[in-house]
Write the structure tokens for this entry.
Amino acid sequence: MRVGRATVRAVNALTARWAGVADRGTVFSAAGVWPLLALLADGAGGAARAELADAVGLPADQSAAAARELLGGLAAMRGVDSALGLWTKRTLELRVPWAAGLPAEAHGVLTGDLDADRAALDAWAAKRTGGLIERMPVALTDATELVLASALALRTEWLRPFEEVPMESAFWSDRVPLGLFRSTAVLDRIGVADTPDGHVTRLKVLGNAAVDIHLLLGEEGMTPGQVLGAGVGILDARHPVVPGDQLPYGEPGPGLSVAKERCTSPQPPSLDVTTVAYDMSAQHDLLRLHNLFGLTAARDSRVGHFPGISEFPLAIGSAEQSTMARFGARGFRAAAVTAFAAIPGGAAPALRYVTTTITARYDRPFAFLALHRHTGLVLAAGWVTEPEPYPEQDQGDWG
């Protein structure tokens, strides 16, 4: 199943809005949150329905079908594993039309034994992410009537690996980051976009699955949200990119140098890239950003907000996401588990030949987007501030 363009735009728009509130190193996945919001919107009523539909970016009566389309598309993507889970108390009766729109195998039971239920939810999260996320991010209590969760994991190996080198960086002068170096003759892997907030250098790192990573370096002073938002704008073709083979000599973009170099024999142009390895994780309390996710009304436990899910009055008691991302010499890993809990009511000198060398250095905080190559769907995004340290000796397989 292919994800439609309207759904891709809606998910990426949520990515851009979420990026707009980022102010420190983080990783997040709007693709993990969006289908849950869409399914909730389908079963919501009143103000909660309107707010959730606005957050989803689609009419509420179209949201469930779009959620199923996205989940089906994710399941068909190489290098991506995804799952949906629903757990309810035995006494909670679900509306048949809403429940019928979910995979039958997704429905489990909350037994009321909090330790056993917690263990079962954690096991589901670990299994569905291949151990990348070990715990379900949910506030499970005696009052929890329903848990709706998604899991997303992506793995890709680089078509060409990087070489591990020590990185020299004025920004990270107090440490020696683990640098990653690679040289290629394919100049259009790099490019520069002129955005309303400043110039952004975009590097595409291609994986052997249909999952690529875009590294985004903005002008000094640009915020994480501005750089990540520019990256989504590039995907939407709102910010045209000048590719490497058309860049002028000099310093045409952040972290970039384009120069003529003399050589002893004819040489193709080259793109020399140095970036840093990173291994990061984050926890997100989505209710703290209730306006962003359309959960303002739905968190009010004095009344019920989901008549299309159950006759029993339900409100959102917790909404959280656990995420991780790992970028190394050989590939990339990322995962996200998102859960909503419902409660009641609530380069020797030479002279004869000349070549062009583009040097790109990501030696200060930058953004990344992990996306599906064919649809442009952003699966995960983040802002890198803490690179991995350069090891004193080989530490073995990176995972």
